[in-house]
Each structure stands twice: as structure tokens, then as C-alpha cells.
């Protein structure tokens, strides 16, 4: 099936499920405040091009309508169906791509009519999204005004939607931690404060840097490493006034530092033997309020704090640390549930060399590991964390000497591609990323050694970076 051709009519199901990939909407105020307009455009385009990756989040579904900023390449879709079987997937793409896809849908009558038609005689749609944004809620309201019954199993009701931005912000999760210390002593964060204004922020950060030989500054809700400054010993002047001036110059480069609260934290000394230093746990809160554990693992993070992927297996985290992570995650999930949040969320940690486990943030939406979880569960079942060792990377850097087509990349990587008989090997998760000279993948191995050996072999096969 080539989904770039005119879509086939959908079967008359009791209800149709629609998925809207609205990644940029999760941090739209942050993106809007980026001073470098070329960087802003690139951020919007890169987010849009991750839409094909989210096919894997629904690999267990038989019929779906995806509303994406980009069409999905037919060859890539054939590759996807070769792994998971034939799927009745249809892709709708609004004519305009502004970055706020829910507004683009509202302004595209053809897409709107397609959604209304998909509701068929039952006039009912199940609508899911990457994140519950205000534009998403506006779209849901408009569809209801057009006479449809809309069920949003992964979203809070509109009156509870504040939970997404509040708990998903650096300041919000910090407030929850401070309020919860008495009842959940393991829910702790690195020493820090929330401030407004770049002048005060630069003064406080400089004082912390000089006294502690390092500091972290975070905008309230950044994205993919942007909006985070990890300043280590030797990277700034040790004299206070010069240090303050250097930090202020950094904060003046982007408007978002001026517009949003700034979190200033102590720079932790990371213990990389514990989940690579950055353990993570993900949950889902169902519509009925049940908090469901999905998986835990270690995040693969660059030196600058940029998330790249996941390492998932029952043994990827020690039992003692895993129990604490899951307990803390359930506690946080119960607070979210009580406040009306529904949908996916994760909790990110830092393992410090002082033996402590610190919460760093919570993503109150689908995450960079949700598609990995879905693919692993589909291929290996509920016990996948015991049956396969998983290494994922959402943006492995390729050589820029040539832009490879998806077929060319498949040919290069034939020796390590996923084998259904051995149930080991590489799955490529995006065709679009190749145009950025990046490879998104999930590697499965029967053991940690096998997974790492296969990943090392993959690197050897790829053209040199």
C-alpha cells in the first residue's frame, strides 16, 4: 500500500480513531519566543518530520487516521507493515503547515470534512494526540459543535487541562516536590529556586557557580535540550562579576529567557553506573483514573543534556533503584490523577554520586520513549522488559557528505536489520530524519551484550561521520 496515493475509503467501523501529531504545540510559547528565526523554523520542521515515527506508537492498532504535518513515504510505510502486518492506516495532511497543526486542521475544510465523514453513521470519533494543547481542545470543541461525539481517552477534560502545562513545567514539578516532601520523602529535586528576570537570574546563577563550581539554568518549558544551560567548572570565569556578565550575555541571546520563569539548580555530579546517570520511568493514566506503569530504563543523554533515546530492560536499572523510581512515579501519578490529568507522563531522574536519586522533570504527554514501548510490547508482549534488551536513538548523527534515501539505508544496514525468527536487530523508525542526516532506530538484542554488539556493528556499517 502506498499511502501517498489517494486514500482508500475506510471501512464502516463502529468508531474511528484519529491521532493528531501536534508536537510543536506542546512548547509553542517557547518556540514562538526563539530569537533566531532560522533556528525557530528548523525546530518546527524537525518536529513535523518526527510524525512518521509515531506510526510505531500505534503498531498494535488495525485502523487509524493520522493527521500529520507531512505525508508518510510509501516505501517507509511498506517497511512498517512488513514488521507489524498490514494496517488500514490513512494519513491526512493539512494544506498549511504553521507548526500549530490543530489550527491548520480547523482552517482546512477538506480535512475537517474527512474527519466528519470518518465518524460515519455513528457520528463518533476517538481522538488522540501527542499532547493536550489549547489548540487541540479548541479542535475537539469545534468537532463537537458540528454534531460529533468525540471521545478523548488520553486527554484531561478542558477544565483540568491546566495540569499539562503546570506539571509539565520545571517550576510546576518543583512546587509539587516541595509540597510533597512530608508524605513522599523520596520525591526530591536538586537544590534550586525559581526566579523571574534575566538580571536576577544571572546574579543568582553566578553566585551559585562561583561557590559550587557549576550551575544549571532551565527555562520553564524547553524542548530537546534547548532552554537548558549546563555550566561546568572551568567554562565560566571564577570571579563573580565576570561570571555574572557571561551568564547574562547567554540569557540575552534568546527571548524565552526573558518571558518565562527560570529555574536555577545545583549542578549534580552524575553517577553513570545507575541507568547511565539518567533513569526514567513512564506511566499512563487511563480515562477511569487508573495509573498504569509502562516501563523503566535509562535515558541516553548527551553531555549537554540533550535526550537521544532509551535503554530498556529489567536489568538496566538495579532492583533497589527501580523500586524507588516506580514508587515515586506512582505517587506523582496519583497527584496528577487527583487533579484531573489523563494520558501519558514520565518522570526523569538524575542519579548523583552522593547516592541520591533526584527528580529533574516530568513530561506530561507522550514521550521520546513511548513509541519504543509500543513497538516492544507488540513484538514481545507484556513481559518485553525480561525478553529483550532495547537500545534506542531518536537522532543518531550520520555523515553529511550524502543524503541517503530510505532504500539506500535499508541496503546498507541489511546485516543488522530486525529478524522475525531470531527476534533481534535494528528497526528504523523514521524516513524523514534521513534528510537531516540523522538515523532514528530501535535495537533489540537477547542480552545487553548482543544489543550493544549489534549497535556497534550498525555503526561500522554506516558511512563515517
Q: How would you portray this structure in words?
A:
It contains 17 helices and 17 strands. By secondary structure, the protein is α+β, with helices and mostly antiparallel strands. A hairpin with a 5-residue loop joins β11 and β12 (307-312). The chain is 35% helix and 24% strand. The chain has helices at residues 23-26, 28-32, 37-48, 74-84, 101-106, 109-118, 134-145, 162-167, 170-180, 198-212, 240-251, 256-259, 319-338, 370-380, 384-387, 406-412, 448-461, and strands spanning 16-20, 63-67, 88-92, 124-129, 149-151, 192-195, 214-223, 226-232, 262-265, 279-285, 291-301, 307-312, 343-351, 357-363, 389-397, 425-428, 438-445.
Task: Give the structure's gist in a few sentences.
With 465 residues, the protein is α+β, with helices and mostly antiparallel strands.
Topology (elements, then pairings):
Elements: E1 16-20, H1 23-26, H2 28-32, H3 37-48, E2 63-67, H4 74-84, E3 88-92, H5 101-106, H6 109-118, E4 124-129, H7 134-145, E5 149-151, H8 162-167, H9 170-180, E6 192-195, H10 198-212, E7 214-223, E8 226-232, H11 240-251, H12 256-259, E9 262-265, E10 279-285, E11 291-301, E12 307-312, H13 319-338, E13 343-351, E14 357-363, H14 370-380, H15 384-387, E15 389-397, H16 406-412, E16 425-428, E17 438-445, H17 448-461
Parallel strand pairs: 1-2, 1-4, 2-3, 4-5
Antiparallel strand pairs: 6-9, 7-8, 7-9, 10-11, 10-13, 11-12, 12-15, 13-14, 15-17, 16-17
Helix pairs in contact: 10-11
Amino acid at each position: 500500500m502506498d499511502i501517498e496515493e489517494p486514500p482508500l475509503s475506510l471501512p464502516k467501523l463502529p468508531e474511528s480513531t484519529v491521532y493528531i501529531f501536534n508536537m510543536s504545540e506542546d512548547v509553542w510559547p517557547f518556540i514562538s519566543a526563539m530569537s533566531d528565526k532560522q533556528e525557530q523554523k528548523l525546530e518546527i520542521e524537525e518536529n513535523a518530520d518526527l510524525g512518521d515515527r509515531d506510526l510505531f506508537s500505534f503498531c498494535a492498532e488495525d485502523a487509524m487516521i493520522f493527521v500529520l504535518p507531512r505525508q508518510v513515504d510509501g516505501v517507509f510505510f511498506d517497511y512498517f507493515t512488513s514488521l507489524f502486518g498490514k494496517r488500514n492506516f490513512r494519513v491526512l495532511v493539512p494544506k498549511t503547515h504553521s507548526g500549530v497543526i490543530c489550527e491548520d486542521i480547523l482552517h482546512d475544510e477538506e480535512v475537517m470534512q474527512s474527519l466528519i465523514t470518518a465518524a460515519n453513521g455513528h457520528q463518533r470519533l476517538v481522538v488522540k494526540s501527542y499532547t493536550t494543547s489549547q489548540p487541540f481542545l479548541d479542535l475537539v470543541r469545534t468537532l463537537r459543535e458540528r454534531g460529533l461525539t468525540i471521545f478523548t481517552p488520553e486527554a484531561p477534560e478542558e477544565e483540568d487541562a491546566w495540569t499539562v502545562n503546570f506539571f509539565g513545567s520545571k517550576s510546576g514539578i518543583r512546587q509539587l516536590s516541595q509540597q510533597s516532601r512530608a508524605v513522599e520523602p523520596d520525591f526530591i529535586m536538586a537544590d534550586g529556586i525559581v526566579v523571574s528576570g534575566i538580571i536576577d537570574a544571572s546574579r543568582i546563577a553566578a553566585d551559585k557557580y562561583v561557590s559550587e563550581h557549576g550551575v544549571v539554568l532551565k527555562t520553564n518549558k524547553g524542548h530537546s535540550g534547548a532552554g537548558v544551560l549546563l555550566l561546568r567548572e572551568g567554562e565560566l570565569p571564577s570571579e563573580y562579576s565576570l561570571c555574572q556578565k557571561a551568564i547574562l550575555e547567554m540569557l540575552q541571546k534568546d527571548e524565552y529567557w526573558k518571558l518565562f520563569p527560570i529555574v536555577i539548580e545545583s549542578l549534580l555530579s552524575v553517577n553513570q553506573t545507575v541507568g547511565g546517570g539518567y533513569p526514567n520511568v513512564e506511566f499512563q493514566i487511563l480515562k477511569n483514573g487508573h495509573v498504569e506503569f509502562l516501563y523503566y530504563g535509562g535515558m541516553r543523554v548527551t553531555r549537554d543534556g540533550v535526550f537521544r533515546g532509551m535503554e530498556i530492560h529489567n536489568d538496566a536499572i538495579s532492583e533497589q533503584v527501580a523500586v524507588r523510581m516506580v514508587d515515586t512515579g506512582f505517587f506523582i501519578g496519583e497527584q496528577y490523577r487527583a487533579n484531573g490529568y489523563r494520558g501519558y507522563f514520565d518522570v526523569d531522574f538524575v542519579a548523583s554520586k552522593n547516592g541520591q536519586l533526584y527528580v529533574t522533570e516530568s513530561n506530561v504527554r507522550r514521550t521520546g520513549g513511548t513509541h519504543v514501548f509500543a513497538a516492544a510490547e507488540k513484538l514481545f508482549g507484556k513481559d518485553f522488559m525480561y525478553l529483550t534488551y532495547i537500545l534506542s536513538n531518536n537522532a543518531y548523527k550520520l555523515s553529511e557528505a550524502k543524503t541517503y534515501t530510505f532504500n539506500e539505508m535499508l541496503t546498507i544496514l541489511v546485516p543488522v536489520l530486525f529478524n522475525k525468527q531470531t527476534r533481534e536487530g535494528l528497526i528504523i523508525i523514521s524516513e524523514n530524519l534521513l534528510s537531516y542526516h540523522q538515523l532514528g532506530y530501535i535495537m533489540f538484542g537477547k542480552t545487553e551484550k548482543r544489543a550493544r554488539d549489534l549497535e556497534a556493528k550498525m555503526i561500522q556499517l554506516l558511512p563515517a561521520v
